[in-house]
Amino acid sequence: MTKWIKKYFQIIRRLTPKRNLIFFLLVFLTLAISCPAKAAPPSITAEAAVLMDAKTGQLYFTCSPWKRRPPASLTKIMTALIALENDRLDSIATVTPKAASIYAGSVLGLTAGDKLTLENLIKAALIASANDSTVAIAEHLAGTEDCFIEMMNIKAILLGALNTRFANTNGYTNPNHYSTAFDLAQITRFALKNPKLAELVRTKEAIVYWDNKKRQEIISNTNMLVRTEAYPGIDGVKTGTTARAGNCLIASATKKERRLIAVVLNCQNRYLDAINLLNYGFYQVKPVTFYRKGETVTHLEVKEGAKPKVAVLTAGPLTVNLAKEVA
């Protein structure tokens, strides 16, 4: 791979200065952002998966990344993100009969008239994957769940998740409710920039408090990797499970200030799949520097200048992350 890339730079030097610079930028951006590393791929059971760099968005591994799949409770990342961006954490939500009627899957056990802060509802949705809390969140912020779902779909488009459509706030199976491994990684990458969301998805255990009654519930993270600290550096994100979606997981981990996001959908063993992907990213993918700081990339012609040409220098090192076998 390194030899292949060097050929590009040899071609660059033969081009005219203007085309030289444009071609160089296109090649570098392609390598840095869109090229998945393809050496010694990790063994996974997932039907669809991606491994993404949280900082750059570069893909290090893909398996059917744009295949539409039911996202199950991975949906709740978007639900929580919309809530955090549009209201105060201390605002009080009153649970409606509709929210209280949600009983399938993981629930908090809300009853009509219950009052909880938005923070407690988001906590229940992200940590315990409570399906009733997402409906309470939606109705509190948007009046109706349908209006809130419109906000979710607009946000998905804005984040570049173009193969995603939400039909509910919690991930219940619906033919019009789908996403892809790539889209879910893209949504998660943005969502983790929210400090409160990032804090909650790495929380092992928490307490949910009611405001209008003496009730509290201890909740545990549904993500076993977070709950048991089974993987060094693990810091999120969310599990999802339905009969149609299968076992799904978005796992995030950070080592030496480098954060990776692994999305695995419909797995036989979602935790092992995620670990294999993260290990691949941390131990097989390494930075390869093609230009150091201050090196000349090309020369540009200057009309009526003191000199006929000026050098274009790198402001910093130009580095691409590649798998060891590729590099």
Can you tell me the overall shape?
elongated
Number of domains: 2
> Helix fraction?
25-40%
What's the arrangement of strands in the largest beta sheet? 2-1-9-8-7
Task: Please give a structural write-up.
The chain has two domains: 2-34 and 292-323, no CATH class; 67-249, DD-peptidase/beta-lactamase superfamily (Beta-lactamase, 3-Layer(aba) Sandwich), CATH 3.40.710.10. α3 (76-86) packs parallel to α6. 37% of the residues lie in helices and 24% in strands. The strands form five sheets. A five-stranded antiparallel β-sheet has the order 2-1-9-8-7, with helices on both faces. It has a two-stranded antiparallel sheet with strand order 3-4. The protein has helices at 2-14, 17-34, 76-86, 97-100, 118-127, 131-142, 145-158, 181-191, 195-201, 224-228, 270-284, and strands at 48-53, 59-63, 92-94, 115-117, 205-209, 216-220, 234-242, 246-255, 258-267, 285-291, 296-301, 309-313, 318-323. The model is unreliable at 1-13 and 26-38 (pLDDT under 50). The relative contact order is 0.18. The protein is built from eleven helices and 13 strands.
